[in-house]
Amino acid sequence: MSVLPVLPVRDLVIFPGVIAPLFVGRSRSLKSVEEASLNDKNLFVVAQRENTPDDPNPEELYTIGTLCRVIQMVRIPDGSTKILIEGNSRALVQDYIQTGDYLAADVIPIAFEGDVSDGAEPLRRAVSEQFERYVNLHPKLPVEIAFSLSNVEDPFLFADIVASHIQVKISDKQELLELLDPEERLDKLLRILLRETDLLEMEHSIHDRVRREIERNNKEYYLKEQMKAIQAELGQSDPSSEFDELLQKIKKAKMPKDVEKKARLELERLSKMPHMSAEATVSRTYIEWLADMPWKKKSSDRLDLGIAKEVLDEDHYGLDEVKERILEFLAVQRLSENKARRGQVLCFVGPPGVGKTSLGKSIARALNRKFVNFSLGGMRDEAEIRGHRRTYIGSMPGRIIQKLKQAEVKNPVMLMDEIDKVGTDFRGDPSSALLEVLDPEQNNLFTDHFLEVPFDLSQVMFITTANVTHTIPRPLLDRMEIISIPGYVVEEKLHIAERHLWPKILDDNGLSRYDVSISEQVMKTVITEYTREAGVRNLDRQLSKIARKVATKIVADQEAGKKIPKRISISNASLKQYLGAPKLHGTNVPKRDAIGAALGLAWTESGGDVLVIESAAMKGSGRVTCTGNLGEIMQESAQTALGYLRANSAKYKLSSVEWDKTDIHIHVPEGAIPKDGPSAGVTLALSVLSVLSKRAVRSDIAMTGELTLRGSVLPIGGVREKILAAKRNGIYTVIVPKENKVDVDELADWARDGMTFHYVTNVSEVFKLTLADARKP
User: Fold this and answer.
1) How many CB atoms lie within 10 A of CB 710?
2) Which of 243, 316, 724, 729 shows a CA-CA span of 20 to 30 A to 336?
3) 722 is catalytic
4) Is the four-CA dihedral 692, 693, 694, 697 of positive or negative sign?
5) Among residues 67, 62, 96, which one has the least CA distance to residue 173?
6) Of residues 323, 493, 722, 727, which has the active-site annotation?
7) What pTM did the predictor assign?
């Protein structure tokens, strides 16, 4: 037994194992707390039988309470004290003792001394399940409480924690505190939870019913008031004014006769409908769409070839094929005079950032036509093209009709971006809907599901853009004239930066009044060492970064009172200060002839590159290993090269090679970059022949070409990019398939200057040209 200070509490029962905050305001209670804190004693916390007494007598307190430890005590400005206590164990009062300042009690700890039976665990699980339902239904209890109990296995502690959280009468909680047997306590707790859960479910049901009733009443009241206001407004206007307005719009639209007839019939139906009905709204919207379409309106084409060429050259450097195609279109328009002309469908295919979208705007400006555009990327619903039928609420025409209404003419330049990224799902296939739109033979009668009347698209100049063509369905691809826009090379990027990007960047960054210049050499450094892309977007970002830093320095000098120099030049020495260290490094091309290392040429989206293909031979079991992140086609090319060499081993003096005892390892550096395609066939064969015959390969020749098992060299693509990549890397002798000679002849003079080309039909010609013993003395 021990004498401890007593803390009477109202509307609260503290359970063992529970930490709880309390606000203490009564003076005798404060003395009890101070006594426990100062003397490091336990505090006996016991509930009052009634809430009213401020200074309860011993008879007004229960005889069983909880021994608690005072964890923290904080004084609050209003005079009260906040304490944090932790329940330790149950205790029974032997006798209450009145002292001068506080109430004390002679208490003894009590606990269950028997063994926990097997029936406790099923009860614990039932209580846990029921408590979770209780927490989910109770508006003031967080759901995390139920989750926190999942790891509590002790039935004593589990029951006390659950009992501390349920919100029931004090008498029920006190009864749970006085039950020592865990099985009895859990049984009692389960009964209370079942009762409280039923009550909460009924309470929720009542609340939902009352809320629905109130919402319905409020909605009815709001709608009635709104109807009163609408009726008051309608009483002040002429109901026929809207009808007359729509009729005038129909007359001014100059529709075809059958369309105008349909519009008038719809207007007549509208006049007989209740003004505020949902069907009237749909009908009114339909008539407005018909009246707003540009049935006869069209812009006059500017057919001056000189002006058109000047506009195209002003906006874009290079792209001669595209510009030539636009000038051809203008020439045909000029000669055909007033004859019916079919619309044009062009598809610009090229990597990102080469100016496909901006080229569409330039074409519209050159032709003096309106320009509208929208993206097809990610589109999966056929209704986006053909429109929704009027039976659907909120239905609208498709994007084609919407953009024609926006253009207000029937012959705009309409650019549809990312046609290679159209999707398909249960809502239909937009690419199939585009078949009619982009077919000049039938798009003069294009029917949108919403309009339900044909609209002539034959005078629209459609331009689509794509990064690749293999994802475009073949029938759709067949309807478009493909114009490839390859990635720019260094020389072209240099012109674009000097003519277009840098002047625009200076203007955008407020530097046009300052003489800020970048030399050609510095610009080349930015292009080659800080960007690697097909287009010029990243180049634009790097140049903008330089301009921003220059602007920052000018403003800082102005604020410091320093004189701003008349001319600001960006040099190679200061480039690192503006852009940091170079981010990119070129291919490590061998400087000397080497065994097993051959130079191949590859096409990439960033404009072509030089590949070093390495081979090594070693004793083994005849296994061939390909590394360097090679694709399936490139690995097959390696097998083809090896098969050709084995079949012709006598011809190339490889009879002494024990193929089944020799392992060959083929590697292409920069393993993080995927590589694929058949054009490395001759390079692979040369590399393997070199390592097997121990003859060095010339380091000043690069090559490309697909190899067959008979040794034939087949034509390849990307000739322009590959040759420029060789020239960029200081390689001026290139071997190409003979059938690609026409592609080489089409190159600009500056691209062929200083280059030597060897045209081959068989790989044996490649070996004669490239093995070091073939080098001329």
Assistant:
1) 10
2) 316
3) yes
4) negative
5) 62
6) 722
7) 0.58
